[in-house]
Amino acid sequence: MTEALAGRVVLVTGSSRGIGAEIAAKAAEEGATVAVHYRASADGAQRTVERVRSMGTESEAFQADLTDGAQAEALIRHAIDRFGRIDALVNNAGLTQVGPFLEISPEQWNAVIATDLTAAFHTSRAALPSMVERGSGTIVNVCSRLGQMGIAETAAYSAAKAGLIGLTRSLAREFGSRGIRVNAVAPGPIATDMTEDLLASEEGRRRLRDLPLGRFGRADEVASAVIFLLSDASSLFLGQTINPNSGGYMP
């Protein structure tokens, strides 16, 4: 443990499982107080909280549907009320989509855009004023290589993640001069509960063939990239997208 985040409060959205849970755990390893967010999985969120607390740092779980702006604002307010401030926001909550474009319903499209893009708008909009007031803060958006390159039959997901990369760059230019760093990570295929069925399918086998490293990534490997961007070690990184993707996309 280097305690690169000692004394800081980190809010990780969608941290009841998968990549979000690993980000929360690694933030705790680095000394951060961690606000855990969940939408539906209270049990999973509590497991993350207990994992964080076992490392000797404070943690609490907060429920919110981040597609609802009022609930996102309440999440930020409750976390600040509980811990005094938010030094870092990790927008990780996401919803996958795989299927032919002509079979995507408007309802499915809207759900993916709302979860993967609009939620980050709501949380960032709610968290930024207090960061601006203090003159410091970090935001990391968890995107995807699909938002950089696009893949057939992932139109909603690819569009949302591309939008999230654009949001990252825009916020970085607007708030970098005020002491706030905004960056993104764009993982390739990562083995998690959410992707288990996909990666075991023929589509998953096809994606594996596209990875020069010859393997899918792990959630903790993505978490390490996020922790780097949250820490002072990345002090010159602004508006950047780093790519823990097994070589699946080389910008």
Note the run of SSEs as H and E: EHEHEHEHEHHEEHHEHE
Instruction: Say how many strands there are.
Output: 9
Judged by helices, strands and strand pairing, the structural class is alpha/beta
What is the mean predicted local confidence, pLDDT? Answer: 94
The first-level CATH class is given as Alpha Beta
The DSSP helix count reads 9
Enter the CATH topology name: Rossmann fold
Determine Rg (CA atoms, Å).
17 Å
> What do we call the CATH homologous superfamily?
NAD(P)-binding Rossmann-like Domain
| Bulk shape | globular
Can you tell me the residue ranges where pLDDT is under 50 for at least 5 consecutive residues? none
* Sequence of strands across the biggest β-sheet: 3-2-1-4-5-6-9
Largest sheet: 7 strands, parallel
Percentage of helical residues? 40-55%
CATH architecture: 3-Layer(aba) Sandwich
Structural write-up:
The protein has 251 residues and is an alpha/beta fold. Helix 1 links the parallel strand 1 (9-12) and strand 2. The protein is 47% helix and 15% strand. The protein has a 7-stranded parallel beta sheet, with helices on both faces. The protein has a single domain, classed as Rossmann fold. The chain is built from 9 helices and 9 strands. It starts with 8 loop residues before the first strand and ends in a 9-residue tail after the last strand. The longest helix has 29 residues, at 106-134. It has helices at residues 18-29, 42-53, 69-83, 106-134, 146-149, 155-175, 196-199, 202-209, 219-230, and strands spanning 9-12, 33-38, 59-63, 88-91, 137-142, 180-185, 190-191, 217-218, 241-242.
